[in-house]
Each structure stands twice: as structure tokens, then as C-alpha cells.
Amino acid sequence: MGELIAVSPLPLSPAMQNYLEEILNLSSKHDTVRVTDIAERLNLSKASVSQALSQLREQGLVIQDRYGPVELTERGRYYGRVVKRRHEVLRSFLTEVLKLDHKTAEEDACRMEHAVSSETIERLVSFLIRGGYCSDFNDVEEFKDE
Predict the structure, then answer these.
(1) How far lies 102's CA from each of 79, 86, 108, 119, in Å?
(2) Pair 79, 10: CB distance under 8 Å
(3) CB-based contacts of 71, cutoff 8 Å, min separation 6
(4) Whole-structure pTM value
(5) By three-state DSSP, how is residue 79 classified?
(6) Cα–Cα separations (whole angstroms), residue 40 to 49, 60, 129
(7) Which of 12, 17, 46, 73 has the highest CB neighbour number within 10 Å of its CB?
């Protein structure tokens, strides 16, 4: 699907981006992702999650049969990975450089990931690696080749 750097801003609301990121996170830990799992992780009602999934399904980002498990499409997985990468880069900057506590950094990164440009993210990655703050961004950078 090309480089992640080319996607700024994502053509989705921050709320929809959060759903994709959470589905991606859950699918990496569980064989199946259910509406209940998403609702618990995002602290939302199952009805709210079902409504959002309907929108994501219409946009071709998730696959879900009625009452069935939720899967990301290739495009949905790509967007989820973009959001996750932004989140990880920002959280690393906030904890490693600015020395914020994990809870504050996590909350701030979640808000910031939707607003910053891809150019800013790429410069933060370079800064973090050159400055020796992070050596494990290889798993993040691998997304560029897909």
C-alpha cells in the first residue's frame, strides 16, 4: 500500500482511527476480536461500538458478519498500523525525551496522534534514533516497505 509517510492526515475521524488501532491491538493478542472486547478496551457501550463498526464496514475497513468477530481489511490494517506507529513514536518522545510519566504520555500521545503531520512523525523518529533514545523502531519502520 505504499509508505506510511504518504498518509497525512488520515481520511478518518479520530474516533474511527482509535477503533482501527484498538482492533489491530486486540487482533495481535487474540484469535478473534469481538464487539465486547472493543467495548471493554475503549470503555464504550456495545451499541456504540456496533454503530462505529457499521461505518467502518461501509468504508471497507472492517469485515464483520452480524454478531460475528471483527476483522480488519487490508486497508483497515494499514490505517490501524499508521495510527499505532504515530502513537508509539509520540509516546516514546514524551517518555524518553520529555520524561513524562507513562500514564500522561499515553493519554497525550493518544490525542496528538491524530493531529501531527507525517513529516513531524518522521522527524521525531529520526531524532529518537539519532539521539539514542530508541533503538527498537525497526519494527515501526518496517511498515514503510508494505
Answers:
(1) 25, 16, 10, 25
(2) yes
(3) 27, 33, 62, 63, 64
(4) 0.82
(5) helix
(6) 10, 24, 35
(7) 17
